[in-house]
């Protein structure tokens, strides 16, 4: 008769229930009780803690993420609102904080460039648009899924209807929750603090993640030894990963010192890592996205370092 769901909160006696509100019906306590009994298919004692109306289907992204003149930045639900399909509100918020956090720290510590904070909106707003579009598509997928009138019939037609709906729901759940591309495939296309080498961007697919170390992409994971990921070896701030062994990186290191950029140097002798990262040298930002990569030190290492901290 209408859509609804019941979710366990503590695995015991605490639940949250949601149901569609028919037009013209008020969200009263009695409506909430009746809906829950109808969903359960039986009467049972219940303490109703609260009832609240809620509008599903939000796909909202702030027009601006910051006002540098007033030193205001929007993060999380202040910057974007989702229907909570796939858990994108929380996941997008964590990445907002990771992106903005290191930039605020860099400016407060004196080595962040004058343009660094403005790149927060440039990098993160397109990701919010991408993720809200995904969440909305999943909300539409479940909310508009057709339900056969024979669904509850004790008949061959009813059994066939249940089997068909089950297959549709299974497919929907796979698409909604098996989303490594959404979680790991973020790519900061055209970012002014990414020193691109002209490589094509990785494919952006919801349900498939293709590891890539193209500048602007999230650094790929690789095991360096049992239970030790390359992420465990990155420094707190910028990390220059040397994957060729003999590369002389003194020019980049000197450039970082000249402008006060904290830089760790990581030696990685791992053929799998070299193949995955696709270059002898890779500069990783504090949020673990690739800022630059190449097979040799750039001709103007100081210019490259100034670019990745927004100090052009």
* Alpha carbon gyration radius: 25 Å
- Note the run of SSEs as H and E: EEHEEEEHHHHEEEHEHEEH
Largest sheet: 4 strands, mixed
Helix fraction? 25-40%
- Low-pLDDT runs: none
Structural class: alpha+beta
Which strands sit side by side, in order, in the main sheet? 10-9-11-12
* Total number of strands: 12
Query: With helices defined by DSSP (H or I, 4 residues minimum), what is the helix count?
Result: 8
Q: Averaged pLDDT, please?
A: 93
- Beta-strand content: 5-15%
Distance between the termini: 61 Å
Shape: elongated
Can you walk me through this structure?
The longest helix has 25 residues, at 119-143. With 312 residues, the chain is an alpha+beta fold. The strands form five sheets. Strands 10-9-11-12 form a four-stranded mixed sheet, covered by helices on one side. Strands 1-2 form a two-stranded antiparallel sheet. A two-stranded antiparallel ribbon has the order 3-6. 35% of the residues lie in helices and 14% in strands. The model has no long low-confidence stretch (mean pLDDT 93). The termini are far apart. The chain is built from eight helices and twelve strands. α6 links the parallel β9 and β10. α6 (250-258) packs across α8.
